[in-house]
Predict the 3D structure of the following.
Amino acid sequence: MTAATIQGELGALLERGLSRRAFLAFCGAMTTLLALPPRYAPRVAAAVTASPRIPLIWLRGAGCGGDGEALLRTAEPDAVSLLLESLSVDYLEILMAASGTAAADVRSATMAAAPNGYLAVIEGAVAGADDGAWHTVGGRAFRDVAREVCAGALGVIAVGSCAFDGGLAAATGGTIGASGAGVVAGGRPFISLPGCPVNAANLAATFVHFLTFNELPPADLRGRPLFAYGSLIHNQCERRAHFEFGEFVEAWGDEGAQKGWCLYKMGCKGPEAYANCPAVRYDDGASWPIGSGQVCIACTMPGFWDSMGPAFRRLPPLASFVPWLTADFAGQVLVGGTAGLAAAHGTASVARAALRRRRAARARVAPAADAVPEPVVAVEAPAEPITPAEPNAPPDVAPAADMPAADMPAADVPAAEGPAEDAEDEPEPGLEAEAANPPEVPPEPKLEAAPRPKPVRPPAAEDDP
Ligand code: SF4
């Protein structure tokens, strides 16, 4: 749907003062809250504006009525008006002028006039003790009325902690046999939005999801939608850093309270409560309990009045099987662990840098090491010309005719044994005699005919007179 089409279908609302900016902001917020990709925003806008007006029947069980008030007392009534325009709230007692049998007739007429079904919202607990006699509407047990309404509903939405699991009426000492709305859902699609009161943003997002996808959003095993109850409050809390640094409020009004430190020691149940309160907040994002300096009472958790109370009682040690593991100790461990990890990281960085320098030095030395054999070959080269059997003497070692016999290489001396060092040795007397008697050691003709390379004599031999 194009923006122009949306604009056209919003014409009636725009004429009543709803700004296009507010509408687009509402659709964008709902898309984000439902954890949908941004590309779904136009689809959400189209669903909110173009969907047939689905009738809504809002029943009120045993509760204080705070959930209906939470929806109607939002800071931005325009957005809620838009939503209510899409849903056609036909039965909501706190908005109706009729009462008694007249109100009951409206409810029956709504059910009969909705062949495609309607949405049912239940606020408050369902009284079950004494056959439902503790809560009656028009002379009938509320439990029976709720069952009748839910039977024809496209979906049943329980709002608030009392509709979730009975809430306060089901706490220790309760006498009405209170339970959550699930007992009257009758197998219809059911979802529960606990909270005391329900967060209106989550309720609006649930409506939008139904309008957009024609089904209720995915939920956990207790029927709570994952988009709103999938994360621990403690993990999203704005005071979490103070918890990890061991900075706690010790008494109401102390320095920690003024600085916004962690409220764990004051009884905060955020570490055990699942909800998106820190992200969504209440009253269109104005604030939330912990943001206002109060503790979280875990009102979204099952049986929180008993299991999480008293409200200002500090939670037991983090792990009951390790009684000495306190929040202080955990904070110190986290701080120490963070410092240790930082030190380890620094040490590893230094070691890596040293290793890189060493490898770079090796890379620079490697070419010089390859060049070492070259001078060695150059040193050994002078010994080659004195090899008698060398037929291809280099031009610079031409035979010398006047070479003395003593300087000539002996025939019985292998060429390999004629290094320059041998020429430095003084000739032994026996050798001199052999050199003086050629018949005893006749020189080979090959040697005489072969070109005699000029031996490269060391400087010492040349200087020897
Ligand atoms: S204990 Fe409470 S106040 Fe502290 S970080 Fe957790 S949720 Fe926030």
